[in-house]
Automatic annotation (TrEMBL):
<dbReference type="InterPro" id="IPR036477">
    <property type="entry name" value="Formyl_transf_N_sf"/>
</dbReference>
<feature type="domain" description="Formyl transferase N-terminal">
    <location>
        <begin position="1"/>
        <end position="181"/>
    </location>
</feature>
<dbReference type="GO" id="GO:0004644">
    <property type="term" value="F:phosphoribosylglycinamide formyltransferase activity"/>
</dbReference>
<comment type="pathway">
    <text>Purine metabolism; IMP biosynthesis via de novo pathway; N(2)-formyl-N(1)-(5-phospho-D-ribosyl)glycinamide from N(1)-(5-phospho-D-ribosyl)glycinamide (10-formyl THF route): step 1/1.</text>
</comment>
<comment type="function">
    <text>Catalyzes the transfer of a formyl group from 10-formyltetrahydrofolate to 5-phospho-ribosyl-glycinamide (GAR), producing 5-phospho-ribosyl-N-formylglycinamide (FGAR) and tetrahydrofolate.</text>
</comment>
<feature type="binding site">
    <location>
        <position position="106"/>
    </location>
    <ligand>
        <name>(6R)-10-formyltetrahydrofolate</name>
    </ligand>
</feature>
<comment type="similarity">
    <text>Belongs to the GART family.</text>
</comment>
<feature type="binding site">
    <location>
        <position position="64"/>
    </location>
    <ligand>
        <name>(6R)-10-formyltetrahydrofolate</name>
    </ligand>
</feature>
<feature type="active site" description="Proton donor">
    <location>
        <position position="108"/>
    </location>
</feature>
<dbReference type="Pfam" id="PF00551">
    <property type="entry name" value="Formyl_trans_N"/>
</dbReference>
<dbReference type="GO" id="GO:0005829">
    <property type="term" value="C:cytosol"/>
</dbReference>
<dbReference type="InterPro" id="IPR001555">
    <property type="entry name" value="GART_AS"/>
</dbReference>
<keyword id="KW-0658">Purine biosynthesis</keyword>
<dbReference type="InterPro" id="IPR002376">
    <property type="entry name" value="Formyl_transf_N"/>
</dbReference>
<feature type="site" description="Raises pKa of active site His">
    <location>
        <position position="144"/>
    </location>
</feature>
<feature type="binding site">
    <location>
        <begin position="11"/>
        <end position="13"/>
    </location>
    <ligand>
        <name>N(1)-(5-phospho-beta-D-ribosyl)glycinamide</name>
    </ligand>
</feature>
<keyword id="KW-0808">Transferase</keyword>
């Protein structure tokens, strides 16, 4: 299976995914695609010998479908079978999502269905949650809402800030996403619940 990873920033999840796709893995990376040329993940991908492309969303303004038509070109040219969103910060329309239905994954920093959207760590702290975590899910037209493929949990600690909690969750993201991709690429869609 050929995996394209879409990023907008540092790409720490992308690095974890790239480094997990060893020779015995059912998938191999075919492309890293960013909507922002400044994304630090691009250099990390190039350093690992993975082709990279930038499709800047800004020239398209509010014309999401025109932007997405441009995204499709490098994804198709690379022979992509699976798309992994990893810190990709643009909302995708159901037109684009439906073309990758059942073949596009995303990682979200909360225990979905709790805290869809942004500022998840701050919201968990404000709610006084004792537990938090991250979720890998299939991407559907509704934001952060598709079938759950895996979750990992972390304790909320006394004195946690959004940053300290985010850092604890990120460690689990880097465990969860590679584990879910390995199963998913092997055709196993059963949810994976990490301890
Ligand atoms: C992470 O919190 C991830 O959950 C979210 O984007 C953040 C940064 O991810 N999707 P990365 O370091 O760019 O992979």
């Amino acid at each position: 299976k050929r995996v394209a990873i879409m990023i907008s920033g540092g790409g720490s999840n992308m690095v974890a995914l790239l480094d997990s796709m060893t020779a015995d893995h059912p998938a191999e990376p075919c492309l890293v695609l960013s909507n922002d040329a400044r994304a630090g993940g691009l250099a990390k991908a190039a350093a690992r010998g993975v082709p990279t492309t930038v499709v800047d969303h800004r020239p398209f303004g509010k014309n999401r479908s025109a932007f997405e038509d441009e995204l499709m070109k490098p994804l198709l040219a690379a022979g992509t079978d699976i798309v992994c969103l990893a810190g990709f910060m643009r909302v995708l329309t159901d037109g684009f999502v439906s073309r990758w239905q059942g073949r596009m994954l995303n990682i979200h920093p909360s225990l979905l269905p709790k805290y869809k959207g942004l500022h998840t760590h701050q919201r968990a702290l404000e709610a006084g949650d004792s537990e938090h975590g991250c979720t890998v899910h299939e991407v559907t037209a509704r934001l952060d809402d598709g079938p759950i493929l895996g979750q990992a949990r972390v304790p909320v600690m006394e004195g946690d800030t959004p940053d300290s909690l985010a850092a604890r969750v990120l460690v689990q993201e880097h465990r969860l996403y590679p584990a879910v991709l390995r199963r998913f690429a092997g055709g196993d869609r059963r949810p994976l619940m990490l301890d």
